Amino acid sequence: MRERILAELQRVEREQGVRVLFGCESGSRAWGFASPDSDWDVRFIYAHDLNWYLSVETHRDVIERMLPDDLDLAGWDIRKALGLLRKSNPSLLEWLNSPIIYRADESFLKEIRALAQSTWSASRLLHHYLSMARSNSRTYLQGEQVSRKKYLYALRPLLAAQWIERGSGLPPIEFDRLRAASDLDVATQGAIDRLLEQKKVGNELAAGPPIPELSAFIDSELERLDGLRSVEAGAPNLELFDIFFRKWIGRKNAL
Question: For residue 20, what are the β-bridge partners?
Answer without folding.
Answer: 46
